[in-house]
Amino acid sequence: MLNLSRRNLFLLKENGKMRPSTAAYYILSSICMYSSRSLCFHLSQVNMNRSISEGRAKVSSSFLSRSRSSSNISAYASPLLLPFTNHTHNSLLLKIPKHDETTDDDTVYNNKSIFIQAIQDAITFAKANKKSSIWIQVPMSRSSCMELLQPLGFQFHHAQGYTTHLYLWLHETIPCKIPDFATHQVGVGAVVINRKNEILCVRELRTNYRPWKIPSGLAELGEHLDEAVIREVREETGIECIFQSVLGVRHTHKVQFGRSDLFFVCRLKPIEGGRDDSTSTDCDEDQNQNGIDNVSTVKNEGYVKQPIAQEGEIDIAAWIPLEEYKAMVNSDDDKLGHPMMKEIMKVVEQSHGENDIQQVMVDSIVPGRPPSPVYHAPFIRKRDV
Question: Domains of the chain, with CATH numbers?
Fold first, then answer.
């Protein structure tokens, strides 16, 4: 007789609790053979139409220890479902734990044959539940698992920190709809003009394509345009500003890491105060020692804070007369002219911001998502029509 005890079956669990209705989907279908070295049996699935929001199949430690000692590693019950959750766009997400996060038997991750079979079972489960794709997160401490996923059709999508994200598209008749990771990077540049009609410019420590450039940099993950451009100006020059509007957008391709680039040029207003005698003389002398011509000086009509170059990134930060900067970008000299900034300066000249692209915060229609800024052309007032 064959003794099939409960501990020798793979039990499907949801939220850590046994679901009798789900476990009943798996019944013993055949007992096919006895062997002097191992006993093989199979569990077949009779109904997989129900989508499980979160599940886990737990491997009996007593059974795995018996499998490890057996020369026939295929003597285990199937299917074996790894920890998974329903993911976005009708997909499943499997998270392989780090070594120090594993609480159950590690055999499924350390034994190649068992791991491959577990992934194959997950693929079968996902297809039966009409999932579009499977995602697997692999920590660096389990990097050996990644080479086992490639023969099964998994591809790299992206890596962040210590985790690699791989995916498998399951539809055989529908082309893969999973987008490339980070198709674009977002850059910001700041046009900052003070009360003395001077524009804030910098010269980098490394590559400089023109004598002067506006403060600029990349937006960080989760950072709005206004936040990013204010931060970049502060970091590169020490000047605090208020965001006003967007002057224009440049879209280019094949830049850093082969990605495309969206560069937003924004109009900012510097925060200026009264006269500051303690810093005016020193700032003027420092600027003149750097060999910068026509740099603003602090006079009685009000204090314009002098910029401070960011250590390790910026060589010089200075207020440059706007007319001097415009002459540079409009120049026909290949070493001075700047076609993009030439167009931006036309926008600057036509108004003080009322004709620029405006920002407004709007609520999201997606539950739980915070409000987002929307950038649009200015509204036409009736008297302008």
Answer: 6-169 (3.40.630.30), 184-271+307-359 (3.90.79.10)
